[in-house]
Amino acid sequence: MGDLNLNKLRPGEKEGKILCDLEEVFDLECLIKEPTRITENSSTLLDVILTNQPQVFREGGVYNPEISDDHMVYASLKEKAVQHKNRILKVRSYENLDEEKFKEDLEMAPWQVGEGFESVDEQYEYWEALLNKIVDEHLPARDMKAIRNGEWIAKFKRGEWIAVYKKDDKQRDINYRPITVLPCVNKVYEVLLAQQVSKFMDDRLSDAITAYRAKKSCETTLIRMTETWRAELDKGMSTFGPLMKNIFQNDMPNIISDAYVSMYADDHQVFVANESTKIAEKILVDNGERMTKWYQDNRLKVNCDKYQAMFLGNLKGERNIDLDIGGEKVQQSQSIKILGVNLDENLNFRDHIRSVGKKVGGVIGILSRLKNLIPVNAKLLLYK
Predict the structure, then answer these.
(1) How far is residue 137's CA from residue 114's CA, in Å, rounded to a whole number?
(2) Is residue 333 part of a domain?
(3) 267 and 290 fall within a common domain
(4) Is 129 contained in some domain?
(5) Residues linked to residue 165 through DSSP beta bridges, in sequence order
(6) Threshold 0.85, pTM exceeds
(7) Of residues 148 and 300, more confidently modeled
(8) 100: which of 86, 112, 220, 360 lies 20 to 30 Å off by Cα?
(9) pLDDT tens across 36-49, in order?
(10) 22, 95: one domain
């Protein structure tokens, strides 16, 4: 919504065509159909209300307040906005609190009377009423006896239901997710209970269940799922050449000692985890020499000058790596491109994001310069 300074009433001219292209590309519809600025010599439609959900609006139009040439635009929704009840938060001030008197009242209160009730709920109601008389506010007490007996206070199970918006139309209730906010005491008890149950059940849960489990996340689930799909799609589809490549270099990991190796086609990485930088350097040099010899023995061209090293870790101070392999000093880099992704020593992917942003910026620049010279279909092709 706003004044785009583009006259929609002239779609054949440059300004009007830009607005029409914008509506077509983003599937928008203008709710304003009448001129929004009328003078003695011209009438233009500059103020627009664009939406991709015109069905939720009852009407849109122009109102002339008779105070200027520019008219006001408006649009009204079909459905009424949901009115939520106001929430009142109560707080208690401690400025005038007499701590000594407060402690004295707590000590003198007949808490032992509650032990005479049979159920934990009756005990809780008594203690709650007694405590409210002293502090004039509900402060639930934690009943360890209830936990030992396998029972739980009913009021601790009650939560406040709130609706959290997910996506799409905010006026439709199906686009909200119900969330229950439970008392803090109940959450603490759930954590303790979950720790005990997890020790018994974690090894018994199926590997297909990944939510709310240690060392599992949305990322690991997506990676596992996509890799499974990829493996199924690749069955019987690998060409003979890549297969022979894998067979040819299958024995290389056998020469690696005290280190990890990753091999994807002809991209090979060796990495070491050690508390001592000097020990890590020696392991890398030894394995680097072995790999270089393996390349030479198998008649592969070795480019030692293209070897790169990167230091990862929280070690403060000296972070330089001194590696000499095949008579060439290995260059230390703060960022290395592996399999098309720029990995930096902090693993925050800033270099990769910057690289992708630069490429995207170039495409956007081309689209900006050609926006009035090529049709919408060509723009979409460049965009995709």
Answers:
(1) 19
(2) yes
(3) yes
(4) yes
(5) 176
(6) no
(7) 300
(8) 112
(9) 888 878 888 888 88
(10) no
Q: Are both 35 and 72 inside the same structural domain?
A: yes
Structural domain count of the chain: 5
Show Cβ contacts of residue 343 under 8 Å, excluding neighbours closer than 6 positions: 310, 335, 336, 337, 349, 352
In a domain, 205, yes or no: no
Q: 294 lies in a domain?
A: yes
Secondary structure, 3-state, the chain: CEECCCCCCCCCCHHHHHHHHHHHHCCCEECCCCCCEECCCCEECCEECEECCHHHEEEEEEECCCCCCECEEEEEECCCCCCCCCCCCCCCCCCCCCHHHHHHHHHHCCHHHHHHCCCHHHHHHHHHHHHHHHHCCCCCCCCHHHHHCCCCCHHHHCCEEEEEECCCCCCCHHHEEEEEECCHHHHHHHHHHHHHHHHHHHHHCCCCCCCCCCCCCHHHHHHHHHHHHHHHHHCCCCCHHHHHHHHHCCCHHHHCCCCEEEEECCEEEEECCCCCHHHHHHHHHHHHHHHHHHHHHCCCCCCHHHCEECCCCCCCCCCCCCCEECCEECEECCEEEECCEEEECCCCCHHHHHHHHHHHHHHHHHHHHHCCCCCHHHHHHHHC
Domain that holds residue 366: 354-383
247: closest CA among 261, 263, 236?
Answer: 263
Same domain, 58 and 96: no
Both 104 and 178 in one domain: the answer is: no
Residue type, position 93, single letter: S
